[in-house]
Amino acid sequence: xxxxxxxxxxxxxxxxxxxxxxxxxxxxxxxxxxxxxxxxxxxxxxxxxxxxxxxxxxxxxxxxxxxxxxxxxxxxxxxxxxxxxxxxxxxxxxxxxxxxxxxxxxxxxxxxxxxxxxxxxxxxxxxxxxxxxxxxxxxxxxxxxxxxxxxxxxxxxxxxxxxxxxxxxxxxxxxxxxxxxxxxxxxxxxxxxxxxxxxxxxxxxxxxxxxxxxxxxxxxxxxxxxxxxxxxxxxxxxxxxxxxxxxxxxxxxxxxxxxxxxxxxxxxxxxxxxxxxxxxxxxxxxxxxxxxxxxxxxxxxxxxxxxxxxxxxxxxxxxxxxxxxxxxxxxxxxxxxxxxxxxxxxxxxx
Length: 350
Hints:
Elements: E1 2-5, E2 8-11, H1 23-34, E3 41-44, H2 51-60, E4 64-68, H3 72-84, E5 90-92, H4 96-102, E6 105-110, H5 117-126, E7 127-135, H6 138-142, H7 146-153, H8 163-180, E8 184-194, E9 197-206, H9 208-216, E10 218-223, E11 230-234, E12 249-255, H10 262-271, H11 275-282, E13 289-291, H12 292-299, H13 306-315, E14 320-322, E15 329-332, H14 336-349
Parallel strand pairs: 3-4, 3-6, 4-5, 6-7
Antiparallel strand pairs: 1-2, 7-9, 8-9, 10-11, 10-12, 13-15, 14-15
C-alpha cells in the first residue's frame, strides 16, 4: 500500500514498522529540522519504512541521509521508498548500537518502539551536533511505573498532579547524564508531551565545560502530597520538610533548565502558525507548575477557569501561563500560598 505523508510517498507493508498515530509528531519534527542552521547529515537509526529520514531529505534538505534497520525486509522497503521519492541515501542492515559505535553522525534520530534506553549510550558516543529522541514508555518517567524508571533510567518519580512536566524533565535529565559521560553537554531546542509519548530535540556541544554546565542543570523536585506544595533544588541541596510540617517526597534527578530555544520556536511559528507550537512558545520556561483541578479538590472548591487564574496571577504581579500538555495546569513564579489565596478569592466571587 502506498500512502502520502507531508511531501513524500511511502510504501507501507505488513511487518515493517510504521505508526500512523505518530504523523503529528513527524510533521512537527519536520518543522523543527527545517529551522536548524546546519542540515548536513541525518541518521534515521531505527528507520522502519524510512519515513522520518525520507521526509528529512525531501522536506528539510539534509545533504546526506543514512537509514538503518536490523530487519532485512525493512531495508528492502526503505530502498523501494527511496526510489519512489527519487532520492538517494545510505542504507544499513545493522544493530543500531553497532552502527553508532562504528561511526559518528551529525544528527541522530532515535524513535524506538518503547524505551530509548538501550540505544542512548551509543547515540551519546556517536552524536556530533543534534539529537532527537522519542520515549513512549512515559510511565517510567512520569511516576506511574516507579520501579521501571529506576531500573532503566535511574530516575525516581511517583505520580503527581503535574506528571508530564516531571516526565519531560526526567527524560531530558537522562539524556544529559548519558551525554556527560562523553564530555558532551546539551541545549534543549524544543520538546513536548503528547498522547503516549515524549519527544525531545537537543543541540549537543562537545566540551568538558558544556558537560559540566548540563550537569549543573540537574536537580530534584520536592513534593508534598499533603498540601501539594512543591519546590526544586539542585544536586547537593535539600529541604527536608514542607512548610505544613510534612516530609517532602524527592523526585529526580530531572532537568531544571530551559525546555526551549526561544529563537528556534519563533522560526517555527514564522513557517507555520501551528496552535500547538504557539502553546509551547507562550508557556513559561520554568519547572513550577500546578494542576488547578487537584488544588481545587484539596481546597474543596469548584475548579476555576484557567484563563481567569492566569490573568489573576498577572494582576498580582506574577508571571503565569498555560502549558501545552494539559488544559488544567498553569505555570507561575507565584508561591503556593499566593495561588491558593487567588483561588479562594475567585471562588468567593464566582
